TrEMBL record:
Signal peptide start and end residues: none
Name assigned to this protein: Oxysterol-binding protein 4
Pfam families: Oxysterol_BP
Family: Belongs to the OSBP family.
UniProt-annotated stretches for the region Disordered: 1-27
Organism phylogeny: Eukaryota, Metamonada, Preaxostyla, Oxymonadida, Blattamonas
Native organism: Blattamonas nauphoetae
Biased composition range(s): Acidic residues: 14-27
Regions annotated as coiled coil: none
Length: 463
């Protein structure tokens, strides 16, 4: 069996994009299932394996910090949604975009790398209208494992911020990775009321370790709730029954929001079964063809019958662009795992295991030194807000507000590559003490001035 992994190629030989490269795909063979049986001797069912090392042959050759970027694979749908003014039509398009981002996955049993503390991944996508959406992710905590990330498009005035705790458990014949947390999308179109959307994430299952077919499956409820539009979209991604049935089936609906759909700013997933008036129903294969049915008194789609919604296999892909490796910093994901990924692609699992172990040993030594110095960890780009219990990106919201009255041609277009430089436009608080280390990583509740060796300006476009 083959599956596909993104590799990189140069996309420009000169000009502003000469320092970037765009991802492509290449195929290589799956490792035989018999090797997975070694798991049987290392784990017992039900245990939390967040801190345990998994065999290298079940690793997807990229980090979790990069994996979340797949949400923007069909980002043209999101750009289209930004132009829609009708609330229901807009929610339909947003649901279409959000569901389309989950089908990008490798065949077989593959798990992304557990990011090291402080690991960063950043990239951007070019849209057909010339605008760009950028992405910045940082592993802000290791115990528990929390990834914070941000998408932003200055041209279309939207951002998506999220923090997710990946909680893997060994279940005997499968591994479950529960994605706890959520995200918030904000839209600030000039001349229009601000909009907000709150989203949740399903769980990921690596099934068939010993019995049945090797497969990675996404299952569980996922929701998009908009308090400003007064609409909610609930989708249940269904697990395949053991004996019969199909993979990747889902069903869901769009309805007017109920008061309990959001509790303390978070989606109340259990409220999806509450009685409500549904406006739209959706169903189908979220990796292929889906259907929609308009349940309104005066249907605007398909006269109330099931109607083709979207086939994600026909959608154009956006390929992300990243800085070339020689422009990346030591803490960036593709540098951190620079020896492991090539070994996996070459199917040299002995070398891959050693490369993985080298990173883990080095990180334990760094953590021990930090503990001996009684130093906590200070995040680079995100800070923890104890009031909202969310990870927020440093500086950007303040910069956007400060630039509201600035002429458009004089505004700074923020990207992950000029974020540090742009931060000097305001005065972020200086971290005058380092919190003591504890059992869990320290959550910095201020926006710290970056250490001197990291505070140099990164060029928006490396030369």
């Amino acid at each position: 069996m083959t599956y596909y992994h993104e590799r990189t190629m140069s996309i420009a030989s000169e000009g502003e994009d000469s320092g970037f490269q765009e991802d492509q795909e290449e195929a290589f063979e799956e490792k035989p299932q018999s090797l997975l049986k070694t798991l049987f001797f290392e784990y017992s069912a039900g245990i939390d394996i967040a801190n345990k090392s998994v065999p290298s042959f079940i690793l997807e050759p990229r980090s979790m910090t990069e994996r979340f970027a797949d949400i923007m694979t069909h980002g043209e749908l999101l750009i289209d949604a930004m132009a829609i003014t009708d609330p229901i039509d807009k929610m339909i398009m947003l649901a279409k975009w959000y569901m389309s981002g989950w089908h990008v996955q490798l065949r077989g049993i593959k798990k992304p790398y557990n990011p090291i503390l402080g690991e960063v991944f950043r990239c951007f996508w070019r849209h057909s209208d010339g605008s760009r959406t950028w992405y910045l992710a940082e592993q802000v905590s290791h115990h528990p494992a929390v990834t914070a990330f941000r998408f932003q498009n200055e041209t279309h005035c939207f951002s998506i911020s999220a923090s997710v705790e990946a909680k893997p458990r060994f279940l005997g014949n499968s591994i479950q990775v529960k994605l706890e947390g959520g995200g918030t999308m904000e839209v600030w179109k000039p001349g229009r009321p601000a909009e907000s959307y709150v989203v949740t994430f399903p769980s990921v299952y690596l099934r068939g370790l010993f019995l049945g077919k090797l497969a990675m499956e996404i299952a569980g409820p996922t929701c998009v709730v908009s308090p400003t539009l007064g609409l909610s979209a609930f989708c249940l991604m269904e697990a395949k029954p053991f004996l019969r049935g199909k993979y990747n089936q889902f069903s869901g609906y769009i309805s007017e929001s109920l008061p309990n759909d959001l509790v303390n700013g978070r989606v109340n997933v259990s409220n999806h079964s509450a009685r409500r008036t549904k406006l739209m129903e959706v169903r189908g294969d979220w990796t292929g063809q889906t259907e929609v049915r308009d349940l309104r008194e005066q249907p605007a789609i398909g006269n109330g019958d099931w109607f083709p919604f979207v086939n994600v296999r026909t959608l154009p892909y956006l390929r992300k662009a990243t800085a070339k490796l020689h422009h990346q910093e030591p803490f960036e994901s593709r540098i951190v795992w620079g020896n492991l990924t090539p070994a996996l692609l070459a199917r040299d699992f002995t070398k891959a295991s050693q490369a993985k172990a080298d990173v883990e040993v080095a990180q334990r030594a760094i953590a021990k030194e930090r503990h001996n110095r009684k130093e906590g960890w200070v995040q680079r780009y995100f800070h923890y807000d104890s009031k909202t219990k969310e990870w927020k990106i440093n500086w950007i919201d303040e910069l956007r507000k400060n630039q509201a009255n600035v002429k458009e041609e004089e505004r700074i277009i923020l990207t992950p590559y000029n974020l540090v430089d742009a931060s000097t436009l305001i005065s972020p608080p200086i971290l005058d003490h380092v919190p003591k280390s504890s059992e869990h990583d320290q959550f910095s509740e201020v926006q710290p001035q970056l250490p001197e060796h990291l505070a140099h300006p990164w060029p928006m476009y490396p030369s």
